[in-house]
Amino acid sequence: MVTLYLAGWGTRFWAWLIDIILVGLPVSAVSDRLPPAWQVTVAPGLLSISLSSLVLFIYWTVLEGYGGRSIGKMALNVRVAGRAGEDIGVGAAAVESFGKAFLLIPDCLIGWLAMPGSKQRLFNRISGTIVIKTQEQEEPEGVTYVKDEE
Protein backbone atom coordinates (compact mmCIF):
# COMPACT_ATOMS: atom_id res chain seq x y z
CA MET A 1 0.00 0.00 0.00
CA VAL A 2 1.29 3.45 -0.93
CA THR A 3 0.64 6.55 1.17
CA LEU A 4 0.29 9.81 -0.73
CA TYR A 5 0.20 13.18 1.02
CA LEU A 6 -2.02 15.71 -0.74
CA ALA A 7 -0.52 19.17 -1.09
CA GLY A 8 -2.42 21.94 0.65
CA TRP A 9 -4.02 24.91 -1.08
CA GLY A 10 -1.39 27.29 0.33
CA THR A 11 1.51 25.31 -1.09
CA ARG A 12 -0.26 25.00 -4.43
CA PHE A 13 -0.93 28.76 -4.49
CA TRP A 14 2.73 29.61 -3.90
CA ALA A 15 3.85 27.14 -6.60
CA TRP A 16 1.35 28.75 -9.01
CA LEU A 17 2.57 32.24 -8.07
CA ILE A 18 6.20 31.28 -8.74
CA ASP A 19 5.17 30.04 -12.19
CA ILE A 20 3.21 33.22 -12.87
CA ILE A 21 6.18 35.40 -11.87
CA LEU A 22 8.76 33.38 -13.83
CA VAL A 23 6.70 32.71 -16.96
CA GLY A 24 3.51 34.77 -17.03
CA LEU A 25 4.92 38.21 -16.22
CA PRO A 26 7.74 38.13 -18.81
CA VAL A 27 5.34 36.90 -21.51
CA SER A 28 2.85 39.58 -20.53
CA ALA A 29 5.58 42.25 -20.81
CA VAL A 30 6.52 40.98 -24.28
CA SER A 31 2.90 40.74 -25.43
CA ASP A 32 2.32 44.39 -24.45
CA ARG A 33 4.93 45.35 -27.05
CA LEU A 34 3.37 43.32 -29.87
CA PRO A 35 1.34 45.00 -32.62
CA PRO A 36 -2.38 45.21 -31.82
CA ALA A 37 -3.21 42.48 -34.33
CA TRP A 38 -1.12 40.02 -32.27
CA GLN A 39 -2.66 40.96 -28.92
CA VAL A 40 -5.53 38.73 -27.91
CA THR A 41 -7.38 39.24 -24.64
CA VAL A 42 -10.92 38.05 -24.04
CA ALA A 43 -12.92 38.74 -20.88
CA PRO A 44 -10.42 38.62 -18.02
CA GLY A 45 -12.10 37.14 -14.97
CA LEU A 46 -14.16 34.04 -15.52
CA LEU A 47 -12.55 33.22 -18.86
CA SER A 48 -9.09 34.54 -19.66
CA ILE A 49 -7.59 34.05 -23.09
CA SER A 50 -4.38 35.93 -23.70
CA LEU A 51 -0.89 35.24 -24.97
CA SER A 52 0.23 34.78 -21.35
CA SER A 53 -2.48 32.23 -20.59
CA LEU A 54 -1.68 30.33 -23.80
CA VAL A 55 2.05 30.21 -22.99
CA LEU A 56 1.32 29.15 -19.39
CA PHE A 57 -0.99 26.39 -20.68
CA ILE A 58 1.79 25.03 -22.90
CA TYR A 59 4.38 25.43 -20.12
CA TRP A 60 2.29 23.52 -17.55
CA THR A 61 1.21 20.87 -20.05
CA VAL A 62 4.77 20.06 -21.12
CA LEU A 63 6.49 20.20 -17.72
CA GLU A 64 3.74 18.47 -15.77
CA GLY A 65 3.02 16.00 -18.56
CA TYR A 66 6.60 14.80 -18.82
CA GLY A 67 7.85 15.24 -15.24
CA GLY A 68 4.85 16.06 -13.08
CA ARG A 69 6.42 19.32 -11.92
CA SER A 70 6.59 22.93 -13.02
CA ILE A 71 9.35 25.17 -11.65
CA GLY A 72 7.04 26.38 -8.89
CA LYS A 73 6.15 22.82 -7.93
CA MET A 74 9.85 21.85 -7.92
CA ALA A 75 10.60 24.75 -5.56
CA LEU A 76 7.90 23.63 -3.12
CA ASN A 77 8.39 19.84 -3.39
CA VAL A 78 5.00 18.99 -4.87
CA ARG A 79 4.00 17.32 -8.13
CA VAL A 80 0.95 16.43 -10.18
CA ALA A 81 0.21 12.71 -10.26
CA GLY A 82 -2.54 10.29 -11.15
CA ARG A 83 -4.88 9.23 -8.36
CA ALA A 84 -2.58 6.30 -7.47
CA GLY A 85 0.59 8.43 -7.59
CA GLU A 86 1.58 7.47 -11.13
CA ASP A 87 2.89 9.84 -13.83
CA ILE A 88 0.06 11.52 -15.71
CA GLY A 89 1.26 12.03 -19.28
CA VAL A 90 0.64 14.95 -21.61
CA GLY A 91 -3.08 14.31 -22.23
CA ALA A 92 -4.10 14.48 -18.57
CA ALA A 93 -1.67 17.37 -18.04
CA ALA A 94 -3.37 19.31 -20.85
CA VAL A 95 -6.81 18.84 -19.30
CA GLU A 96 -5.53 19.71 -15.81
CA SER A 97 -3.61 22.75 -17.11
CA PHE A 98 -6.55 24.08 -19.13
CA GLY A 99 -8.45 24.96 -15.97
CA LYS A 100 -5.66 26.91 -14.30
CA ALA A 101 -4.56 28.65 -17.51
CA PHE A 102 -7.95 29.77 -18.84
CA LEU A 103 -10.66 29.23 -16.17
CA LEU A 104 -8.83 29.61 -12.86
CA ILE A 105 -11.56 31.31 -10.82
CA PRO A 106 -14.45 28.91 -11.62
CA ASP A 107 -12.03 25.97 -11.58
CA CYS A 108 -10.97 26.72 -8.00
CA LEU A 109 -14.41 27.80 -6.76
CA ILE A 110 -16.10 24.64 -7.99
CA GLY A 111 -13.33 22.56 -6.44
CA TRP A 112 -13.60 24.31 -3.08
CA LEU A 113 -17.41 24.45 -2.93
CA ALA A 114 -18.56 21.29 -4.73
CA MET A 115 -15.75 18.99 -3.60
CA PRO A 116 -14.75 20.22 -0.12
CA GLY A 117 -11.89 18.37 1.50
CA SER A 118 -10.76 16.71 -1.73
CA LYS A 119 -7.99 19.29 -2.35
CA GLN A 120 -8.85 19.13 -6.05
CA ARG A 121 -9.80 21.79 -8.53
CA LEU A 122 -12.56 20.90 -11.00
CA PHE A 123 -10.04 20.18 -13.75
CA ASN A 124 -8.00 17.98 -11.40
CA ARG A 125 -11.14 15.87 -10.96
CA ILE A 126 -11.90 15.81 -14.69
CA SER A 127 -8.31 14.79 -15.56
CA GLY A 128 -8.03 12.24 -12.75
CA THR A 129 -5.07 14.05 -11.17
CA ILE A 130 -4.02 15.10 -7.69
CA VAL A 131 -1.22 17.30 -6.38
CA ILE A 132 0.96 15.48 -3.87
CA LYS A 133 3.93 16.28 -1.68
CA THR A 134 7.13 14.72 -2.94
CA GLN A 135 9.46 12.81 -0.69
CA GLU A 136 12.74 14.42 0.28
CA GLN A 137 15.76 12.81 -1.32
CA GLU A 138 16.83 10.03 0.99
CA GLU A 139 20.44 9.24 1.73
CA PRO A 140 21.77 6.28 -0.25
CA GLU A 141 22.14 3.07 1.72
CA GLY A 142 25.41 2.97 3.63
CA VAL A 143 25.96 6.75 3.37
CA THR A 144 25.39 9.29 6.13
CA TYR A 145 25.51 13.01 5.50
CA VAL A 146 26.98 15.18 8.27
CA LYS A 147 25.68 18.72 8.26
CA ASP A 148 27.45 21.60 9.99
CA GLU A 149 25.54 23.32 12.77
CA GLU A 150 25.04 27.01 12.10
From TrEMBL:
It is a multi-pass membrane protein. GO terms for cellular component: membrane. It is found in: Membrane. The keyword Membrane applies. Residues 6-121 form the RDD domain. The chain crosses the membrane at residues 12-30, 42-63. Keywords: Membrane, Transmembrane, Transmembrane helix. It comes from the Archaea. This is RDD domain-containing protein.
